[in-house]
């Protein structure tokens, strides 16, 4: 890297800028600190929300800087882009050098280098040199790897090394970061996220996309919700949501299955997830009709839009629909049934029966008071419908990142040297030294252990 | 009848005693107190393990049947457990004793906060459907191993800063391991934490994809774990490539741990999906 500093062409400067780890530090910290903003200011809320919460001035600032959707803002994406360029340039810059270390033409051990090291394990031993060399060679081979022997002026030196390949680990980590971001880009270009609500019994092939309000997409298959079921614990907490779904292609059933939370259905690259549910409608509604005049109560099982004759020849009643919410003079009444009374003279009066307020219809002051005694809920199931062709790149990135980190953090390129010096008449002096490109602490422990075993071997 | 709450209360007191022993070993320079501290720590750890196991069994007896990682109380207890496990491992692996002075109090503080804070309910309650997944177990365990690595690194960083204040070569400070050793151990712990936080974020992403159909949705807890991850990634690069060591790294490690704490506690103050733990 130093070499290049002498010929400072503009292109070179750009290259140097992008290959610096200083840029890495700046970008990583900028990503960290800007990400905080998005956790403090709610994202993708409505305009009214920001106006109410932060006032006119701040809302304008947020909108113009894209802070309301900051993880998709140009400046945030720019930071990610910088990170990618930084990683690529930096890897190019260093890979050649690393490659030469990983695949050397010939592995050379420099005795001088080991001799100069401060931390050595030393002991003496009065066995003949050849015997020691033979034994230690066997041990080194077992503990470390292939052994190279060198004769020295005073005896012999044994070298062994392991883990040369682990130097590639960092590149794997960096590659994984790129894969993740590539996967994310692919997902956002060729994928979609949408949702659909299907009442029990209904079929649809149109979903509402999440990006952009009320954009729709037609799938090339349709989905029928056969049934929806929710189970509760005795505490009232929900236990399980389950939709029974049939997929149809050109009207033909191709697949029937259950979708549960945590158990999505995947079909043709599209995934359907259980996300919510609600009451769509009702079936088998039992209505009680109380006559004001006689005080008589009549009960009747109704179907929607099938008129029933009212007692005492007072006309007919039609149950029209069920609605999950109903606005009555500015109040939301919640779930309601809506029907109408058709008098013998054909005048119509609408009747509202809120579930929360069973006596509500008394207020209307009609001849009969209607109330719903019993009904069977018809649910709708809320499904999320997603397609993300980038997810496989992301998953590949996940695997590479874990493997790469593991290799980088817990493994290292270690070289060992065992030198045996003949001391005239006083036996042999054994010196063990080792180097590694990282994890000096565990290398030290490993060397100590090796020395202990070698000491024991001599007896 | 012994129940899990009682076992875990006992654990709290045992861990308190461990911290006292380590601090004693340091201030009075008595090696045997540290040895005793380790023995007691192992007992406390056994008790902690039994408490978690029993709580698991109890949840099955109550008919909810889930791993005990589902609320703040359970996660704090588990946090203590992982820090204790990691610390025991580190002491045996690196054969350094006194290093527990700043790490063991963290083990105690986490479980004490769980047991004593009035805001934290220790009731066993059922899981909402979204949390019923085997990924939950893998996700929680790996995240907490990551947090544990960072917690121990934090303890070491504090120790480094304290040590480097000691001018006097005979004083209290000089009884701590050498700066070089503490520095190296901090780095080892950060690497351990980084690997497991990485796996934790990944298992979370895979799980989110299988439950909600998106592996990443920028909810505050996710974002904060990413922020933490980015800070530690910066630390690794500063150390590897820019040659930062000692005090500077200690401060970055402390900053990183503040991010861990915010990911863990602070995020509950923000709106989002992860509000359970
Ligand atoms: C999110 C992005 C990144 C992640 C997760 C990441 C991760 C890592 C990890 C885990 C290490 C090993 C650190 C250690 O040994 O303690 C590392 C080393 C390194 N990283 Fe990154 N990195 C990222 C971005 C970058 C970028 C943008 C550059 C570009 C300059 C870069 C350059 C390096 C270099 C030169 C090393 C040292 C390699 C060696 O030991 O020879 N990293 N990175």
How would you characterize this protein structure?
The complex is a heterodimer of chains A (459) and B (277). Chain A is α+β, with helices and mostly antiparallel strands and 459 residues long. Chain A has four domains: 2-93, no CATH class; 111-163 and 412-457, TATA-Binding Protein (2-Layer Sandwich); 190-280 and 381-386, no CATH class; 283-375, no CATH class. Helices cover 34% and strands 37% of the residues of chain A. Chain A is built from nine helices and 20 strands. Chain A has helices at 10-19, 21-40, 47-64, 74-102, 111-115, 129-143, 169-190, 391-410, 440-457, and strands at residues 121-125, 147-151, 155-162, 192-199, 203-209, 215-232, 238-249, 252-260, 265-267, 270-291, 297-302, 308-309, 316-323, 327-328, 331-332, 336-342, 348-354, 368-387, 414-422, 428-436. In chain A, strands 4, 5, 6, 7, 8, 9, 10, 11 and 18 form a nine-stranded antiparallel beta sheet that branches. In chain A, a hairpin with a 6-residue loop joins strand 12 (308-309) and strand 13. The longest helix of chain A has 29 residues, at 74-102. Chain A starts with 9 loop residues before the first helix and ends with a helix. The relative contact order of chain A is 0.14. Residues 1-5 of chain A have low confidence and may be disordered. Chain B is mostly helical and 277 residues long. Chain B folds into two domains: 1-126; 128-277, no CATH class. Helix content of chain B is 71%, strand content 0%. Chain B is flat and about 60 Å long. The interface between A and B is large, with 51 and 51 residues. Protoporphyrin IX containing FE sits between chains A (21, 24, 83, 86-87, 90, 94, 170, 173-174, 177, 405, 408) and B (191, 233, 236-237, 240-241).
């Amino acid at each position: 890297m130093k070499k290049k500093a002498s010929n400072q062409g503009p292109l070179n400067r750009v290259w140097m800028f992008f290959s610096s780890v200083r840029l890495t530090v700046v970008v990583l910290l900028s990503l960290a600190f800007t990400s905080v903003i998005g956790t403090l200011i709610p994202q993708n809320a409505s305009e009214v929300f920001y106006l109410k919460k932060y006032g006119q001035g701040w809302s304008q600032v947020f909108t113009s800087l894209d802070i309301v959707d900051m993880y998709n803002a140009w400046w945030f994406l720019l930071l990610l882009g910088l990170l990618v360029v930084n990683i690529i340039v930096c890897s190019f810059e260093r890979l050649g050098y690393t490659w030469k270390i990983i695949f050397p033409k010939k592995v050379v051990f420099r005795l001088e280098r080991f001799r100069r090291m401060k931390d050595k394990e030393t002991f003496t031993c009065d066995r003949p040199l050849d015997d020691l060399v033979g034994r230690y060679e066997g041990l080194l081979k077992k503990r470390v790897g292939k052994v190279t022997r060198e004769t020295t002026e005073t005896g012999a030196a044994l070298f062994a090394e392991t883990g040369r390949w682990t130097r590639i680990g960092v590149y794997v980590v960096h590659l994984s970061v790129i894969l993740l971001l590539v996967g994310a880009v692919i997902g956002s270009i060729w994928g979609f996220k949408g949702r659909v609500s299907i009442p029990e019994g209904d079929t649809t092939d149109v979903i509402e996309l999440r990006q952009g309000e009320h954009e729709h997409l037609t799938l090339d298959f349709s989905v029928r919700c056969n049934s929806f079921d929710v189970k509760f614990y005795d505490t009232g907490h929900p236990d399980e949501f389950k939709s029974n779904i049939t997929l149809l292609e050109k009207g033909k059933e191709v697949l029937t299955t259950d979708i549960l939370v945590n158990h999505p259905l995947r079909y043709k690259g599209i995934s359907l997830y259980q996300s919510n549910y609600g009451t769509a409608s009702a079936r088998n509604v039992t209505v009680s009709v109380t006559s004001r005049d006689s005080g008589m109560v009549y009960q009747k099982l109704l179907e929607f839009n099938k008129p029933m004759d009212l007692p005492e020849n007072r006309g007919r009643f039609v149950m029209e629909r069920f609605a999950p919410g109903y606005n009555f003079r500015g109040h939301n009444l919640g779930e309601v049934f809506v029907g109408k009374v058709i008098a013998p003279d054909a005048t119509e009066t609408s009747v509202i029966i809120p579930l929360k307020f069973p006596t509500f219809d008394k207020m209307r002051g009609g001849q009969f008071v209607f109330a719903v005694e019993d009904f069977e809920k018809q649910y709708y199931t809320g499904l999320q419908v997603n397609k993300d062709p980038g997810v496989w790149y992301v998953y590949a990135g996940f695997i590479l990142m874990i493997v790469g980190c593991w290799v980088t953090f817990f493994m290292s390129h270690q070289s060992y040297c065992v030198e045996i010096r003949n001391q005239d008449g006083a036996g042999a002096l054994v010196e063990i030294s080792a180097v590694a490109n990282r994890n000096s602490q565990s290398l030290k422990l490993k060397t100590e252990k090796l020395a202990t075993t070698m000491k024991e071997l001599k007896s | 009848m012994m129940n899990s709450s009682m076992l875990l209360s006992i654990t709290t007191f045992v861990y308190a005693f461990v911290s006292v022993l380590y601090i004693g070993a340091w201030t009075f320079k008595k090696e045997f107190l540290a040895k005793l501290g380790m023995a007691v720590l192992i007992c406390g750890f056994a008790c902690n393990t039994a408490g978690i196991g029993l709580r698991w069994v109890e949840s099955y007896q109550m008919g909810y049947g889930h791993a005990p990682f589902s609320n703040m109380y359970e996660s704090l207890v588990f946090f203590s457990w992982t820090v204790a496990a990691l610390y025991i491992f580190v002491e045996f692996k690196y054969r350094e004793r006194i290093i527990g002075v700043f790490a063991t109090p963290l083990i105690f503080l986490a479980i004490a906060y769980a047991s004593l804070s009035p805001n934290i309910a220790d009731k066993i309650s059922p899981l909402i459907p979204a949390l019923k997944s085997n990924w939950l177990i893998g996700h929680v365990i790996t995240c907490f191993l990551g947090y544990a690595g960072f917690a121990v690194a934090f303890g070491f960083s504090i120790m480094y800063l304290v040590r480097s204040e000691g001018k006097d070569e005979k004083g209290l400070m000089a009884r701590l391991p050498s700066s070089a050793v503490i520095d190296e151990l901090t780095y080892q712990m950060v690497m351990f934490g980084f690997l497991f936080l990485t796996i934790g974020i990944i298992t979370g992403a895979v799980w989110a994809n299988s439950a909600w159909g998106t592996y990443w949705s920028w909810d505050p807890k996710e974002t904060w774990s990413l922020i933490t991850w980015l800070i530690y990634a910066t630390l690794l690069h500063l150390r590897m490539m820019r040659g930062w060591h000692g005090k500077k790294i200690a401060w970055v490690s402390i900053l990183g741990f503040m991010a861990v704490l915010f990911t863990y506690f602070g995020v509950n103050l923000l709106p989002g999906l992860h509000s359970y733990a």
